[in-house]
Amino acid sequence: VARCVPRASPTMGRKFENNKLKMAKTQAQYAKKAAYIGKNVIIAVKQSGPDQETNRALANIIREANALDVSKEVIDRNIKRALQPDTSDYKELTYEAYGHGGVGLIINCLSDNNNRATADVNNVVNKGGCKPAT
């Protein structure tokens, strides 16, 4: 009498796993670039409008996006999002810190929440063994 015993699902192998990790790393890098460009597009559109011929900051960001291989779709989607009235307003924040040996550091970041940005910057600065400026 033959019995049918269920087996565990076979794994795809080492090459598949290595390719999967490489693709995940590449996708994470792209997502970081797209988020950076998206925030900058929203700031530029909110300041001077969606027309890149009259908005020099937007034209520069689009040029930078092309250099970073960020798709036109990401730019268009963020322009549309910036034109909606309920979109949060990103602000460019600047923080100062003192590094090892008293070296001054200037930290620029984009955030829609000042309190969260301050807490995150202070956390990173303290973990690095530096001191936030008061």
Using only CA atoms, what is the Rg?
A: 22 Å
Helical content class:
40-55%
Could you spell the SSE succession in H and E letters?
HHHEEHE
* Low-confidence residue ranges: none
Query: Helix- and strand-based class?
Result: alpha+beta
Largest sheet: 3 strands, antiparallel
Strand order of the largest sheet: 2-1-3
Summarize the entry for a quick read.
This protein is 54% helix and 13% strand. The chain has 134 residues and is α+β, with helices and mostly antiparallel strands.
What are the key terms here?
134 residues; alpha+beta; single chain; 4 helices; 3-stranded antiparallel beta sheet
Can you lay out the helices and strands and say which pair or pack?
Elements: H1 14-48, H2 56-67, H3 72-83, E1 91-98, E2 104-111, H4 114-127, E3 131-132
Helix pairs in contact: 1-2, 1-3
Structure description:
- The protein has helices at residues 14-48, 56-67, 72-83, 114-127; strands at residues 91-98, 104-111, 131-132.
- With 134 residues, it is of the alpha+beta class.
- A 3-stranded antiparallel sheet has the order 2-1-3, with helices on both faces.
- A hairpin with a 5-residue loop joins β1 and β2.
- The protein starts with 13 loop residues before the first helix and ends with a strand.
